[in-house]
């Protein structure tokens, strides 16, 4: 079983070395986990997982390998069905609020060990569904076990968090939002753009800002005598050009594109931001709106003349186009090509702008011959998958000196 656990962890994407696995075996040999599966979970995670971004992968591997092992805290599928009251959440929360308003919790002490012991006993004894009440594992009551109730503290089983007072949660993937391969949301976009701002170029202005790190270093090297170091203040010097693929195969990603657009508009980290749209590939015209309607456009050459080479360029698209749309001078079936193929226009983009990347929401791994256009663009421009990890890598690339 433990060898299978090792293989499953590797299959889920965990980078586990032989040394780390032997360290876990040594911990088992020394009896550090006893016969407690929960203790084994925490010891194994501590030894094998290097980053919180991998917690969810570890949890999935652990569940897959040990889901058949009986434990004192095992919650059956039948009980989870009993506790599923998603259609009554609002009513339950209202009743819970009324109950909590009546409670004087200031002097209430919750004995965590006592609650956990009672929970184990309820799991052994309970044989039916319970809603309301204050004893069994159930919903909408005052019991310490279940969900959508009015009890402060306890063990939440299933359901969604209401007052976030439970000290234990059973049956939840707590770390899925920590993964660096998850699809982005508005918050991650904003954090990535903040990172881009942190690397912004410092202008040729007087040194009027305290450099804390340099001051500490200088003071330490100066035998503890304070030596102040000043630096140039960081200004909003980054200019950003966003080009969105819109329509067709990008329709499933409309919500994601909207999050990205909103994150940029809410950000104050840039000196200037410009957004334009295209369909499948960049040609002689760029559209002003995501509808990509004829006439609602600017010339791509106008963009070259008016948006200088200092703009950081992020192209967002799935590169899912027919080869002729990329290579033919008549491949643009929605508008003019301007006498050049899409491939030639992309070469002009690359030659004009110093820093340019392509973000792809469904990028195939490695070289994908079945996605000819994507493979060709990858060879021309740095391409990253539109995930947390990919966007961070893209930001680093945009701000690098190479």
C-alpha geometry: extended
Question: Reading side by side through the largest sheet, how are the strands ordered?
Answer: 8-7-11-12-13
* End-to-end Cα distance: 48 Å
Largest β-sheet summary: 5 strands, parallel
**Could you tell me the radius of gyration in angstroms?**
28 Å
The portion of residues forming beta strands comes to 5-15%
What's the mean pLDDT score?
A: 76
Helix/strand/pairing category = alpha/beta
Number of helices: 15
Number of strands: 13
Q: SSE order, as H and E?
A: HHHHHHHEEEEHEHEEHEEEHEHHEHEH
* Residue windows where pLDDT falls under 50 for at least 5 positions: 88-93, 102-109, 160-171
Determine the fraction of residues in helical runs and give it as a percent range: 25-40%
Tell me what you see in this structure:
The chain has helices spanning 2-11, 18-29, 37-48, 55-66, 77-82, 89-102, 112-125, 186-198, 212-221, 254-266, 300-306, 323-327, 342-352, 372-380, 388-399; strands at 138-139, 145-147, 155-157, 168-170, 209-210, 230-231, 239-245, 272-278, 285-287, 297-299, 312-316, 355-360, 383-385. The longest helix has 14 residues, at 89-102. It is of the alpha/beta class and 402 residues long. 40% of the residues lie in helices and 12% in strands. The chain contains 15 helices and 13 strands. A five-stranded parallel β-sheet has the order 8-7-11-12-13, covered by helices on one side.
């Amino acid at each position: 079983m433990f060898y299978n656990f090792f293989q499953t962890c590797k299959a889920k994407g965990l980078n586990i070395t032989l040394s780390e696995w032997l360290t876990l075996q040594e911990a088992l040999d020394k009896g550090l986990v006893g016969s407690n599966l929960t203790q084994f979970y925490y010891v194994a995670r501590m030894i094998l997982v290097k980053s919180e971004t991998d917690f969810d992968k570890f949890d999935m591997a652990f569940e897959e390998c040990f889901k058949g092992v009986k434990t004192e805290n095992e919650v059956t599928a039948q009980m989870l069905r009993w506790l599923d009251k998603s259609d009554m959440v609002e009513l339950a929360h209202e009743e819970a609020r009324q109950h909590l308003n009546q409670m004087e919790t200031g002097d209430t002490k919750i004995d965590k060990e006592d609650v956990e012991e009672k929970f184990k006993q309820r799991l052994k004894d309970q044989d039916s569904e319970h809603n309301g009440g204050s004893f069994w594992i159930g919903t909408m009551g005052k019991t310490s076990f279940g969900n959508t109730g009015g009890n402060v503290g306890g063990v939440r089983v299933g359901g969604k968090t209401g007052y976030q007072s439970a000290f234990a949660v059973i049956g939840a993937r707590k770390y899925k939002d920590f993964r660096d391969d998850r699809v982005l949301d508005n918050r991650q976009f904003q954090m990535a753009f903040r990172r881009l701002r942190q690397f912004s170029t410092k202008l040729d202005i007087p040194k009027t800002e305290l450099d804390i790190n340099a001051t500490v270093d200088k003071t330490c090297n100066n035998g503890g005598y304070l030596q102040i170091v000043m630096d140039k203040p960081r200004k909003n010097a980054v200019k950003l050009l966003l080009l969105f693929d819109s329509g067709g195969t990008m329709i499933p990603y409309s919500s994601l594109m909207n999050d990205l657009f909103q994150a940029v508009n809410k950000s104050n980290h840039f000196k200037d931001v410009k957004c334009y749209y295209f369909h499948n590939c960049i040609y002689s015209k760029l559209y002003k709106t995501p509808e990509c309607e004829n006439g609602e456009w600017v010339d791509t050459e106008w963009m070259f003349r008016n948006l200088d080479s200092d703009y950081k360029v992020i192209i967002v698209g799935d590169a899912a186009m027919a080869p002729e749309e990329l290579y033919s001078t008549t491949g643009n079936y929605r508008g003019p090509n301007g006498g050049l193929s899409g491939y030639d226009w992309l070469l002009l983009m690359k030659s004009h702008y110093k820093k340019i990347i392509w973000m792809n929401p469904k990028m195939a791994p490695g070289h994908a011959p079945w996605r000819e256009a994507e493979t060709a663009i990858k060879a021309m421009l740095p391409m990253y998958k539109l995930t947390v990890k990919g966007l961070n890598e893209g930001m680093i690339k945009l701000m690098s000196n190479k």
